[in-house]
Each structure stands twice: as structure tokens, then as C-alpha cells.
Amino acid sequence: MDRMIGKRSGKYQDSPESGPPSEPGDDRPETCLWMTIDELMTRDVVTVQENTPVEEVFSLYGKYHFYTLPVVDSKNKLVGIIDLDIVLEILLLCLVPREKYTPLTAIRSLGSTAREIMIPHPVTISLNATLKDASDLMMKYRLDHICVIENGKLAGTVSKRDLVEEICRRRKKEKLKEKTD
Amino acid sequence: MSALLQLLFLIFSVKILGEAAERIGIPSVMGEILAGASLIVFFHDLETDIIIFFAELGSIFLLFTAGYKDVSLRSLKSESIPALIPTLSQIAFAFAFGFALGRIFEFSILQSLFMGVAFSPTGIGVVLRTLIDLNYLSSRPGTAMLSSAVLDDIIALFLLSVVVTFARFNRIPPAQTILIIAGKILLFLLIMYVSGKYLFPKLFTYAEKMHTKEAVFSLVVVIALLSAYLAERFELHSTIGAFAGGVLVSEIPLAKLPDIQSKVNGLANGILIPLFFAFIGFLIDPYALRNAGSFTLLVILAALSGKLAGGFVGSRAIGFDFYESLIFGLGVMPRAGIELVILTIGRELQIINQEIFSAMVLMVVISILISPACMKWAIQVRQRKAGRQ
Questions:
Q1: B-interface mutation test, from A83, A107, A146, most B Cβ less than 10 A away
Q2: Of A45, A34, A42, A44, nearest in space to A12 by CA
């Protein structure tokens, strides 16, 4: 298990999208749409190396309450993800519906390392994409987490919770400001 | 109006009979074939053009989803290389048995070659449940079967593309023509590879940003149909192109999103593929089967024994014991989806007639019914013997 150390950066950058850039200290809820992922994402991510034994992956799921586990190579390049659906499918193979009995499911159930059970080619988002980009992906394709990439390397993850927390924080601040005005 | 009613009846009956088959412990494809066979009982003026249209789409999506979801060369481990020997052995035996049977019945070389190709694929999905239920998936024969299944489909499709190309000339073409055909096939593969590597990922990035509904899902469907069309243009069969398209799309993250996979799966396995299986049932002619007589019985015997003997010999060669080899041989006996696609192609190109087609479909049905039961018996015998020792 690897842990990428660091907290959310809080550093503001210009958005690549044509929208109002968020200025430091501008906490209006609507401006957060143009916040970059860099400001939002969780950098403190638990990851596993591609050759991590499957049993270790299972014990991580037993220990932590996460849904998606990024799999990285020795250069911290993202090579895939493991999610709870895969773990459940392997642990309860005998209960998997018949329509899902494919050679690929069976081969995955016999995997002994993270690489052999992971989903290769996960959807990623770049560090300077905006909250709007992330929410578009999440809402369109029902994604809960997206891995954030910087030069091909895993920089962190952004989740629906990160987005909701940021928006709620800004709404709360805006309401407080209205009251004091 | 009648077409709508027939389509409605087909979709409803494939689901009901497919479910009935699953409930009695056999794959739903059996119920779906039966649903198609029953169509003639309920409707006298069949709208065959519409049924054929949906069945063609079904066969394209069957192969597309095989490439998109089921077959992954990356999943083959280095330990699975030894499985190449029993895989090649079972394909070679099955092919030889099919070809020999064709020659015995004085079929042309092309027809005999087609018989060989049609005997080659394996429907491993049929025995997966048995392997899992008996906790035998991680055994040596189990893992070898899985590796074999991935390689098997690819080899069978390669052989099919060769025979389909020959069939377009209605004979084995001269060497110069073969070279031109080989060049065309290579060009097709090159175009597909370059598109899959550079064009398709860009298209998906644009589609993801589009405001119209389901743009990414639509793009997956467009690529399935485009690959099928391109293959036809390059003198391959559309289904082979669809398979290549599926393999390429499976490498693109946006196309493999669970949400998109679920929609493709819904369209393919919910509607189109069952309609293709129903179409197979609809094409079975009981009178042709009766006329075929002993040929049907010989097709069944040759197809099943070819796989069994090839699987057994190949497994022995890599050090499996008697029962392990027997289990492997029995496990690679069933035929399913890809086999049925190959048969419809043969019928469509008039390489095989109605009698051969019906006999071969019956062989598929029998193989699906008996393989899991025979393999279960062999596994239990082996486990009992191992328990005694």
C-alpha cells in the first residue's frame, strides 16, 4: 500500500474553460464551477502497486471505506483501478449472475496480483480541468470518483463528495455574508 | 402492423423461453433458439426481411461485444503459454474432423474447409458455471480452458476470414489473388489499428463534451457498424470487422465506462443477440434434418469427438493426467455464439445448404446440453479418486 502525502493545495489557477476564473477569496458558489481540480482534489490517496497481492488488496478494503483503489506502477503512473464491484465479484464468484460468466470474469477471479484484477484504462481528468468538467463526467456517467493525472502520473482523486463539500462550504459562507450585510 | 407484432412476439418469447432454460439449468441460448423455431407456428405471413435485419445486427453485436467485453489478450498470463498446445491441438483435430467429414460426403474443397472452420470454435461460457459450481476453475484444466477460450475465438475468426474470402470466388483463388486479398486484409487491419490508436480516442473526447443525449454510447454503436461496413469493403465479413472494432474500442477509457458498457450490453444482450439466436431457431428446418439422416448424427459425433480427442491429446502432451486431459477435452466441446455466426455466414454465402446448416445447429444444441454434464461427471470421478488416495 502506498499513500500519497499532501493535502488539498488551495492554490488558485486560471481555468482552461471560457468562464469566469475564480479569484482567491471569491467564495461565491457560482464561481466554484471554474475552480481547477488542483484546488479540489484529495492528494492523500491510498494506492497499490501493480504487483500487490490480491489478499492485501482485500485487507485494504476491509480496513478503509473507499470505493475505488488506484493501481500504480513503480513510477507512480496510473495503470488501472480496482473498485468494490470487482472485489465483490471475486469474493462472491459463485453468486455472480450467469450472464456475467465470461472468460474475462473467470480469469479475473483467478488473479493473484492487483494488476490481474484491475480495470485497465480508467477514465482520468487533468489537474487543470475544472469542477464543471469533473461534475459533467460524474453526472453523465454516474462516476463517484475520478483519478487526477499530471504528466501521466497519479496526482490524486476527486470524488462527488469533494465537489459537494466545496459547494456547500461556499454556500454556507455566502449565507453568512448575506446575514452580516 | 404484422411486423411489429412479430417483433414483439419474438422479443417477449426469447426472454420467457430464455428464462425457462436458465431455470432448468441450461444456457438461455437454448430457449432463444426455441423461441425462433416456434415463430412459424404462430405466424403464417412472416416479415422475414425485418427479422433478417435485426438478426444481422445481432450477429454484428455478438462479435463486437466479444471483442469489447469478453476477449482480452492482456488477460493472458505468461503461465498460460503452455495452454497454447492443447488449444492448437483441439482446434487442429476439430478442423481435421470437419474437413474429413466433408470429403467423405463428397463436398467440394471449399465446403469441406468451411466444415473444418465451423467445427473449430469453443463456447467456453457454457461450462464456466460448472467449473465454478464444482470449485474447479483454478485447477490446471480450468485455467487452461480459460486461456484456450480466448485464443480459440481469435483463431476461429482468422480461419473464417480466409474461408469467407475463398467463398467470394467460389473456389480457392490463384496465388496472385490470394496475395491481393492478404494485402487488403492487412490494409484493413492497419486502418483499424491507426483509427483505434489515434482517431477513435479523439472522437470519444469530443463526444464526451457534446450536449446531445448519449453521444458516447452512440459513438460506440457507430464504431461497431463502421468496422463492420469497412470489413465488407475490404472483402471480409462484417462480423469479423465488428470483432476488430470491439477489441480496439475496449482500449479506450471513455468507451469502457461502466455506464456505457451497461447500455451497449442492454442493446446487444437485451435485444439484438437474442433476436439473432431466435433467427437461428427460425432457420432450422426439421424436414431438412430428416432428409440429412445419418449425416446429422455423424456431424454431431465428429464435432464432439474432434474437440474431445484434440483436447485430450494436447493436454497429455503438456503433462496433464488422464482425468485432467479428459476434463479439458470435455470442457472445450461446447459451441455457442461465434459458431452460430459462422454457420449463418456459410448459409448466407451459400457455402452450406439447408441440410448441413440444420445439422450443424443441432450439433451446437447437443454440445451445449451434454458438455457440462459430461465434464461434471469427469470432475466428480477425479475428485473421488483423489479423495481415495
A1: A107
A2: A34
Domain ranges of chain B: 2-388
3-state secondary structure of B210: coil
Measured CA to CA, the distance from residue B244 to residue B227 in angstroms comes to 7
Identify the three-state secondary structure at position A109.
Answer: helix
pLDDT tens-digit series, residues A14-24: 333 444 445 55
Round to whole Å and give the CA distance between B319 and B249: 38
Residues 6+ apart with CB under 8 A from A172: none
d(CA B362, CA B271): 23
The average pLDDT across B284-300 equals: 83
Q: Which member of A103, A137, A143 has the closest CB to residue B124?
A: A103
Q: How many CB atoms sit inside 10 A of residue B375's CB?
A: 27
Of all residues in chain A, the percent with pLDDT exceeding 70 is 81
Which residues of chain A neighbour B71 with C-beta distances below 8 Å?
Answer: 103-104
Rounded distance between C-alpha atoms, residue A91 and residue A15, angstroms = 43
B31: its cell numbers: 430457449
pLDDT at A25: 54
| Mutant choice from B137, B145, B263 vs A, greatest count of A C-beta within 10 A | B137
CATH of domain B2-388: 1.20.1530.20
